[in-house]
Amino acid sequence: MTNKHNTQSNDDADDAKTNAEAINNTETPSNSDSVTVDKEKTIRSPLTIAISQNTMILALFAIACTLTVSLVSELTKDRIKVQEQQQLLNTLHSIIEPSRYDNDIANDCVLITSPQLGTDKVNTAYIARKSGNVVAVAITSTAPQGYSGNIDFIMAINNDGSVNGVRVLKHQETPGLGDKIEVRKSDWINSFTGKTLRSEDDNRWAVAKDSGIFDQFTGATITPRAVVSGVKNTLNYFNKNKAMLLTSANDCTSDVNNDVNSDEINRDTVSHNTKTDANFSAVQQKASLPTTAISEAANE
Amino acid sequence: MSNNIAPQDTDNLAASNEANTNTALESEQNAERKAAAKAALKAEYKELAIQGLWKNNPGLVQLLGLCPLLAVTSTVTNALGLGLATLLVLICSNITVSAIRHWVPKDIRIPIFVLIIAAFVTCVQLLMNAFSYGIYQSLGIFLPLIVTNCAIIGRAEAYASKNPVKKAAFDGLMMGLGFALILILLGVIREILGQGTLFDGAELLLGDWATSLTIQVMQLDTQFLLAILPPGAFIAMGFLIALKNAIDNYIKGRHVEKNDKVIERVRVNFDS
Fold this sequence. Notes:
The structure holds 2 protein chains of 2 kinds.
Chain A: H1 8-24, H2 30-95, E1 109-112, E2 123-130, E3 133-146, E4 149-158, E5 163-170, H3 222-247, H4 262-273, H5 278-287, H6 292-299
Antiparallel strand pairs in A: 1-2, 2-3, 3-4, 4-5
Helix pairs in contact in A: 1-2, 4-5
Chain B: H1 2-19, H2 22-55, H3 66-72, H4 76-99, H5 109-131, H6 133-139, H7 150-158, H8 165-195, E1 197-198, H9 202-206, E2 215-216, H10 225-228, H11 230-262
Antiparallel strand pairs in B: 1-2
Helix pairs in contact in B: 1-2, 2-8, 4-5, 4-7, 4-8, 5-6, 5-7
């Protein structure tokens, strides 16, 4: 093979290479230099062609796959939004009876951050109103001292400061022991309903082992202890910041979909919307999550 | 199958004798060839089914995709959900990979396969998010992790990239079924031992009518923790593989005995 086979662009690239080599090997005679260049040209030209061809094909497939995914995403977008909203409403209905309010509770909320809520992430307070008057507030919160990590929960607090209901949203407690905080495993979580805090440091708010009014589970004291103190802290937060919560402007308009599990879900939708390699990176990102994901799935 | 062909052949022979023309002979030969090809095709499909469901089962023999297999099978519902999702992805990816096999250069086939699988998994994930939200939530991370299930890329590379679309689709179906069956079997074992129920939470996957599917097999005062946690899955999986090997050995043993009785010298010509 000779120079004839080379395309214009390859010649350019090779020229650059020749210059670089000339600088490196100033001492070598010029004729041997030209021989090596010729050799390289014959070796590299089919390679460059193959690379550019493969790049083209890969790019075509990437575009096709991206188009497919975006099409499906576009088709299912509304349905997914409805499902998420429905899920949120179901949770809210289980802690505030739907007959007690008449506003669109899922779209009437205040975003709050406070160390008292057990996390530095943004929490949401959904406000239930009946003909304009506030009836109850549902606050998402976290109990950080769970047996294996954070316990995320949502609780509804009536306007008079009493608890109307608590539901655990996400936890990694031991199945069979600590998971009795779930409403489908045990009705323990309902023991909060109707309770109030007498003072900021009400010592009745503890498990029976710590001479409080809430039962612990056989074989699991740490989990209920964590939930009780989490609920207590949230209640304290509400009592202190009630005025602020009730007068703040609405952060959830109907366009912005704020969800209970907003972190998780938003990350998902973002990875669906940013295209091409996003699928890969999203999967990799998820694959590198800590092993708690496995125990979490085992809990389900 | 050979029994079926034999009488046909004699019929054809008789017919050709009567007509006694070249054309009849040719058509007879064609028919014979077609019948043979059909039989071969049938045998190949049968072989594919046996490979996928038993001999080369992705869960029991290839031991691919163990991470979701062990993590998700705590209930039958979860197992069924993941099994169906994997089956769907496997069939779709096998079909696509097989359809494009002539246009994909050898050097970049793996990234393209991964790209295709990732696209299908994302589609399945979106669809499940939209139409069965409950199961989408309880499968959690393991739904997107189907991308990394080696069983899928393994089939794309080993079979679909070398065979026509129809066969690849059938192979995907059988491999997916084999995988789903193992998932469901593990789910049944673990759910009965752990919770004493079957199909708990089936309404999350199948809709509200499935609530009645939930069966209380036995009443357990406390849950059997080991069965619910991942170690229980490993142990149950071990027993399943042992059972499969025991059955294989039993069949092999009987086969050898039979052969010994019928043709005693079969072992002398041990070329193959």
